[in-house]
Amino acid sequence: MKRLNTYKTFAMIGMLTCSISGCSKYLGLKPDNSFSVPGSLQDLQGLLDNSEVVMNFAATGLAEIASDSYYLNETSWTAMTDERDRFLYLWQPYSPIASQWTGPYQAILHANTVLKYLPSIKISPGEITVANSLRGAALFHRAYQLLHLLQVFSLPYDPAGSNDNLGVVLRKEPSLDEKISRSTVRQCYDFIIGDLKESVNLLPEKADIPTRPSKAAAYAALARAYLVMSAFENAGRYADSALMIQPDLIDYGTEINTASNVPFSKWNKEVIFDMAMNGGAPLAPARRRVNIAEYGNYEESDLRKKAFFSLNNQGEVLFKGNYNGLNSSQLFCGPTTAEMYLIRSETNIRKNRLSEAAKDINTLRAKRFASSDFSEVEFTEQKWAMDFIKKERRRELIFRGQRWPDVRRYILLGEQEETMTRIAGGKIYTMTAPDIVGYTYKLPDEVIDNGSLIQN
Known about the structure:
single chain; mainly alpha; Serine Threonine Protein Phosphatase 5, Tetratricopeptide repeat; two-stranded antiparallel sheet; 10 strands
């Protein structure tokens, strides 16, 4: 990996990394118009390698904030100083902190800058592969951030509907003068799928480091996108493609210390692409507590119960299973090989290919139990298998930002009724199934005040 050690690269990053105080034109942001034009492939790579500031720590965490995997006790809830955090935890119609929107669009700005300036750079025959990889990486980053934004700022994709309701903004240029508006949900998914499919043909099978996109990562992102669209055959096909490149699983019985406060190392072998969400105040480790129902969803012999959780002196359940090795609200939300096994298994269940589905589940679970405690699961009835895979997704993907989109698609498919409950300020707040499907976050006030976007 080339280090970001040139003044020019740092200058470009500084100008592209927008802040609320200094930028208001790029979706509520207005950066300094004095822009250092990238002049080499190394410059462009530097923009995409700004991983710990912009590119790989930018995903919105609002899906996890909305989920029922955790709760805040009264002390933690009242201690949040920003009222937006307190009321968003209760699913109230408040605008979130601006960084939940602007952070992803900062990453998109970097990606669009690469896409704009790459064609103008003279490259030698020996640099064609690098140039192609840069274009593929920029397309991937743009699509990945848009996919996360759609899960919280738009209604869910309805496989039986027109999907002409408001989506998010499809920024295609780094220009500050680009006219912006919200595209429809269908247009957004078409755009995301298009970017990812093109990136597949440009990226290397595996990246040097997991913060850089790869062909496996693009396949995994396509699998996720098609899953939330309930396009299951495509979801399974792309999960299979990702697993053909990267099939490895961690053996929780022999390869990690489940008693450790940080059981998982950064960039472990299950990580297909490294991405962290902005969990904000509600998901700070000192505040969040795991719902006891989630904790009870694991068998005692399931090693995930020890690897993911610990108990404090009050008997409250704490989450420690962050796949990026951090004890913070920056929770890992990238795709993993385990997730791909789950997507492929769900596809096979829905297509009534039960023996194939069970094979994937057993491949995964064999690495989550000690060999003496593991017994294979048999799928003989489709509905039972479907119920099992839903629970297995909850067990494996807790605090990954997947619970909220999962619940919404299950409800839309008419498969289950869900009710979520919070308690704060002496009151009970409840979300019924229609509430969950119809709930979207408002766009941040800073974006609405400075632009021409329609509010949710």
